[in-house]
Amino acid sequence: MIGGLEGEKTRWTETVANLTNQQEMLIGDCMIAAGMVSYAGPFTADYREQLERLWRESVKKLGVKLTPNVTMKKVLGNDVTISQWAVAGLPSDNLSVENGIIMFGSRRWPLMIDPQTQANKFVKNLGKGVPEGCETFKLSHPSLLRDLEFAI
After folding, report:
1. What's the predicted TM-score (pTM) here?
2. Would you kindly state where each structural domain of the chain is located, as residue ranges?
3. Residues 84 and 47: beta-carbon distance below 8 Å
4. In sequence order, which residues have a C-beta less than 8 Å from that of residue 71 and are 6 or more positions away?
5. What's phi and psi for 149, nearest 5 deg?
6. DSSP 3-state assignment of 46?
7. CATH, range 1-76
């Protein structure tokens, strides 16, 4: 038993060293992730990569430590949640996963422009797992049109 625990000591020592390193990088990593959630939503994948790269360089210039090549997905992504999204129909490409992180990490209602109806299917499939369900409607729905006419 003592011999088996010897290997655990090595693993625990490595884990403590990794966590200490992550703690030092936490502020810079969170700055990048928060900026992406707050500002990167409407942009393309290429532009998002450029934003992250620019922000990493700017944060380094300010003297704030951050993990090399940190991304919003690395900081806020959860493999289990991302797998659940994939089961619900979210495409597994980086842009779609980032959109999911932004959608669930933001306090604002997301506007989804969805010409291929991927987001529509994804949200409906996610709604099946929620006890109260998920209501959807089209812009042409009569009660919505009535409400819009009243607001105008």
Report:
1. 0.74
2. 1-76, 78-152
3. no
4. 32, 36, 52
5. -65, -40
6. helix
7. 1.20.920.20
